[in-house]
Amino acid sequence: MGDQGRSKYYILMDALKTDIIEGRILPGDKILSENMLSEKYGVSRQTVRRAISILVNEGYLVSEHGRGTYCAERKQKQSGSKNIAVISTYISDYIFPEVIQGIDKVLTGRGYSIILKNTENSQQNEAACMADVMTKNIDGMIIEPSKSEIFCGNLSQYQALDRMNVPYIFIEGIYHSLKDRPSVLMDDEEGGYMVTNYLLENGHRNLLGIFKMDDYQGRQRHNGFVRALRKFGLYYNPDRVVWYHTEDRKIKPAAMLEAIMKSPMEVDGIVCYSDQIALDIIRTLERLGKRVPEDISVTGYDNSFIAVNGPVKLTTIDHPKSLMGEMAACLLLEKMDGIPDENSKVRRVIEPRLIIRDSCRRRSPE
Amino acid sequence: MGDQGRSKYYILMDALKTDIIEGRILPGDKILSENMLSEKYGVSRQTVRRAISILVNEGYLVSEHGRGTYCAERKQKQSGSKNIAVISTYISDYIFPEVIQGIDKVLTGRGYSIILKNTENSQQNEAACMADVMTKNIDGMIIEPSKSEIFCGNLSQYQALDRMNVPYIFIEGIYHSLKDRPSVLMDDEEGGYMVTNYLLENGHRNLLGIFKMDDYQGRQRHNGFVRALRKFGLYYNPDRVVWYHTEDRKIKPAAMLEAIMKSPMEVDGIVCYSDQIALDIIRTLERLGKRVPEDISVTGYDNSFIAVNGPVKLTTIDHPKSLMGEMAACLLLEKMDGIPDENSKVRRVIEPRLIIRDSCRRRSPE
DNA sequence: CCGTATTTGTTCGTATGTATT
DNA sequence: CAATACATACGAACAAATACG
């Protein structure tokens, strides 16, 4: 066992490993090409390849076809379990299954398996999921944060992942305190702007906005809403914005809307946080004797099945759900390969796209 | 990227791995020598060595200098990984997310994690999923069979699970050749009977049935359709049944329906395999100038979101999706606890329930 | 114990393919 | 397009460990 220092490949392997450990070869450095090593050490290229292949297996080196062989950014945590944790808020929520499908498509192709967890949008559950996942061997994680707009209570767990060099990617949203971490997000500010702008361009002047308070997306869409109002020189009236939380989704927006509709406040268009809310709002309006879009225009967000199959086909913002999953998976693969941000080739922002259907109608401004 | 199955060493490596996983090579067995493998597979000895070296690295094989190469003894079959594999056909299909949620609810409560796989309803992918999952440490498996009505091509893999004492539960369907294995199924025969019976009781006499050919559910629902016809003393006309496969779902039912509607055959009611098909059918009928339910009644199956949110609210059979997941998870827990069938307390059959909505109308029989 | 065949381990040379720059 | 670098494959030779008559 111990007496194999004799073989050439072993000597070369050991020399390279020592160079890395003792810092003569630094993370990210390109090492000599196979031919050059072969010449320098007086061995055949096959022997060089053998030495290198061991170090690649052990995670010291990374070979890139056509480019060269590089010292790994971080020493990979052994052979690789080929498990990826995917933590979402709701498994069966109306977009996540497709996001998972996108993730799966990319990762399965690369031999990874998905360990699925869901938090029901509670940070406490998120903590439990992460603790559980860290007892397994995972190579990486894709996570949709729970209540991303609230202070992140699980900071220490994310830092533990950093320490263990387990890469993770945020999708859909991101915590303020972890803003520098890699993520795949929609440009929700722009999306909020686009729907609002569409209504304003079509003559609406009495808009209502309904947004979710406790996540990143809600804040961003709201910001876009405000920007569009400003562009049209309209005064921003906080009373014309309804904020709700995850927990009161089913009650608050409808109740607030009813109160507003019974007040003297005029409303000709409603910008909704999501298609789901838009559907609730349309039902409430119908109950109050208002027709959509004849009396009031309503916009959704996400282009879910509700947008196509509901009582009114919704004008909404497209959410390329599967694509988002694929992008997140590709970004994670990059991270797991130790490719630094500056060499990244994966796009991280999804540009929103307005889809015009039947839930809005042109108004003539007074 | 994903097209590396082509290289010779990879093919050989995969073949050996499969032999091990499927039990053709047993722990402790000596495998063929390098020279013999080289001859048998028509590749060079170097290539054989490369394939073997990967499997040695992964722990499947052990090479002994001068003696030979052997299949590794069970490294740690040891239960207690707290991982459960869940293999479904489509992750984002219209009922499975909720089934997974039900599974997750029960298993997370007991400290298990779910490894998610999907087959896209291909037995080939099913084989790959199972092979992959067996390289992990799993305590059990819940699987929705792919094309369950077709001959099960992966029998040996299921037998490998039996040998390794890894319990597994079938849901939604079951292969003929594995009929004795534990499963959680709907009584689809009864469900097919109930919708058909409902139409017949409401005066319909010219029914059409549209069923899926390649899965268990399709056959069962069809059988119920036939039983109801018989009860009413009606002649079973095979021309009044449209069979389709997974692959031609989007074309065949609509095309066949169009042909039938343009023929002299009378149709006053259509029993559909699923809500999804019912929606396609309703759209086709609308295109042909027929109204549902005024001109023709249509029934769905599964009580999915389509049934509530589509253009016509569907009369359908309830599918308690989350409950099915919970039942399967409970049954799996029983199996993992080693509780024999005769002491089982988990129900394994879901009784169908008819949900009456707006897609059918009473006819007066002539 | 010896000798030989078998089997894995190491090394080199060569050729061709493919991705990147 | 050409040069560079890694990837795959084959053939050959010899070394070292083991099995067996």
Question: What is shown here, in short?
Answer:
The structure is a homodimer of 366-residue chains. Chain A has 366 residues and is of the alpha/beta class. The first copy, chain A, is 40% helix and 15% strand.
Give me the CATH architecture of the largest domain in chain A, please: 3-Layer(aba) Sandwich
- Fill in the CATH topology of the largest domain in chain A: Rossmann fold
Strand content of chain A: 15-25%
Count interface residues per chain for the largest interface: A-B, 32 and 32 residues
Oligomer class: homodimer
Summary keywords:
homodimer, 366 residues, alpha/beta, Arc Repressor Mutant, subunit A, Rossmann fold, 3 domains, six-stranded parallel β-sheet, four-stranded parallel β-sheet, 12 helices, 40% helix, elongated, DNA-binding
Describe the structure.
2 copies of one chain form a homodimer. In chain A, 40% of the residues lie in helices and 15% in strands. With 366 residues, the first copy, chain A, is α/β, with parallel strands linked by helices. Chain A has 12 helices and 14 strands. The termini of chain A are far apart. Chain A has helices spanning 8-21, 34-41, 45-58, 96-109, 123-135, 155-163, 188-201, 216-231, 252-262, 275-287, 305-309, 321-336, and strands spanning 61-64, 68-71, 83-88, 113-118, 140-143, 168-171, 183-186, 207-212, 241-244, 269-272, 297-299, 316-317, 349-350, 354-355. Chain A is elongated and about 90 Å long. The first copy, chain A, folds into 3 domains: 3-71, Winged helix-like DNA-binding domain superfamily/Winged helix DNA-binding domain (Arc Repressor Mutant, subunit A, Orthogonal Bundle); 83-187 and 321-350, Response regulator (Rossmann fold); 189-319, 3-Layer(aba) Sandwich (Rossmann fold), CATH 3.40.50.2300. Chains A and B meet through helix 4, strand 4 and helix 11 of A and helix 4, strand 4, helix 5 and helix 11 of B. Strand 4 of chain A pairs antiparallel with strand 4 of chain B. Chain A binds a DNA duplex (21 and 21 nucleotides) through residues 7-9, 33-35, 43-47, 49-50, 63-69.
